[in-house]
Design a protein that fits this description.
Layout lengths: L4 E8 L6 H9 L6 E3 L9 E4 L3 H9 L12 H17 L7 E6 L21 H12 L6 E3 L5 H14 L5 E8 L3 H9 L20 E2 L1 E8 L10 E8 L14 H14 L8 E3 L6 H13 L6 E3 L2 H4 L6 H15 L1 E2 L15 E2 L4 E2 L4 E8 L3 E8 L5
Parallel strand pairs: 3-7, 4-5, 4-6, 10-11, 10-15, 11-13
Antiparallel strand pairs: 1-8, 1-9, 2-3, 6-8, 9-16, 12-14, 15-16
């Protein structure tokens, strides 16, 4: 089987506008969440991570090709700022053998607000794909992947399959989602929003925070000009547990089967996984489901973290964003902690990372789960030599 890599990458978030800065801030336990009081959005205060508008606009106009005559939406700006440095760093032309995957849950949902200057048609996900592909001159149509909160990590798995099957030599991925009144009201209606910074897996957790981010990465079968933090994509698996439209399997069945599939494809047993980057939303049902699935696989003693306490839940961006942080964690041989965790709040034992900790590592597992019962697991491994 051809080795396929996840290589050059970039993150646009409240913790910084490049992956190195974001990883450093996480290692220093810098929070990206802020308390927001705005009764025009929600009747009570809430926590979210938001991207600075001025910094975003300054970064956006610094890239060639932007023009006031061809305005982009806020999400499109985030995606352009995330993807442009990745394409430049890779040196790969966007020709016939180069694909583009857009991963998002809601896309340009903010254009449906009454004061938006953009037409409502811009909310169609296909339109988002066209705008990004046109800006960079991709010769193939963008593939838009919208599968709830596994979208970002599932895009990595799909890109790997495209290259394995010979459809493309390289695939660029960009994922992103916004914090809007629409998304906040949706999670608020589930009574899932926390009035304080989220605390995944903790006994006193009170729900999730929502965040916005864009992340981008290159998936390639070539070893030319790989990023220093590049990793093998060893194995991937996805499984829908068909339990409930907004609730996971109480036995962790879909996640359990996803990890089994990824492990078999990777030929890597559970005991060789150095750490787990979990979905870890901070809701009762998600955290419990993950703890059960990890225990069924004998992973209860493997260090695990959730990054939601830094960014909130960035929805379709989260899987790729957290994978990129995992790549830098491997490169630096550093385990990053889960903010807010103090006392175990799940029925099965898990080993949550509470402090930034040096550790020689080679392999990590990224998992994600989402509405509709979707689950995806991908195993990454650091090459022996660069």
């Amino acid at each position: 089987m051809t080795d396929i890599y996840l290589s050059h990458n970039n993150i646009i978030s409240s913790l910084g506008f490049d992956s190195e800065t974001v990883a450093t801030n996480i290692g220093n336990k810098v929070p990206g969440l802020k308390r927001i009081e705005d009764i025009n959005i929600l009747p009570r205060p809430f926590y979210a991570s938001l991207i600075d508008e001025d910094v975003l606009n300054d970064t956006y106009v610094s890239w060639p090709g932007t023009s006031p005559e061809k305005p982009h939406t806020r999400l499109e700006k985030m995606m352009i700022c995330a993807l442009a440095p990745v394409i430049r760093a890779s040196g790969i032309p966007v020709g016939k053998r180069t694909g583009l995957i857009i991963a998002t849950t809601k896309g340009n949902i903010d254009v449906l607000e009454k004061d938006s200057p953009f037409p409502e048609s811009r909310a169609y996900l296909g339109e988002l794909g066209k705008k990004i592909a046109e800006f960079f001159g991709f010769r193939n149509n963008a593939i838009v992947l919208s599968n709830a909160c596994v979208s970002g990590i599932l895009a990595v798995a799909i890109a790997k399959r495209y290259i394995s099957n010979g459809m493309y030599d390289h695939v660029f991925i960009v994922s992103g989602d916004l914090v809007t009144p629409f998304t906040l009201s949706g999670f608020n209606s589930f009574q899932a929003l926390s009035p304080e910074p989220c605390r995944p897996f903790d006994k006193d957790r009170t729900g999730i925070n929502i965040g916005e981010a864009a992340a981008s990465a290159l998936v390639t079968g070539s070893t030319d000009k790989l990023a220093e933090e590049a990793v093998f994509i060893r194995g991937e698996g996805s499984c829908n547990d068909a339990n409930h439209i907004s609730g996971p399997s109480r036995t962790g069945e879909g996640l359990y089967r996803s990890i089994i599939s990824a492990s078999k494809q990777a030929c890597i047993p559970a005991e060789d996984i150095d750490y787990i980057s979990a979905h870890g939303t901070g809701t009762l049902y998600n955290d419990e489901m993950e703890a059960i699935a990890f225990n069924r696989l004998g992973l209860e003693n493997t260090p695990v973290n959730s990054l939601k306490g830094y960014f909130g839940h960035t929805l379709g961006a989260s899987g790729l964003l957290e994978t990129i942080v995992g790549m830098h964690s491997l490169k630096r041989n550093m385990l990053y902690p889960s903010p807010g965790y103090e006392k175990c709040g799940v029925s099965q034992p898990i080993r949550v990372i509470t402090e930034t900790t040096p550790k020689e590592m080679r392999t990590f597992l990224k998992t994600a789960s989402g509405f509709g019962g979707c689950n995806t697991a991908v195993i990454f491994q650091k090459p022996d030599k660069r």
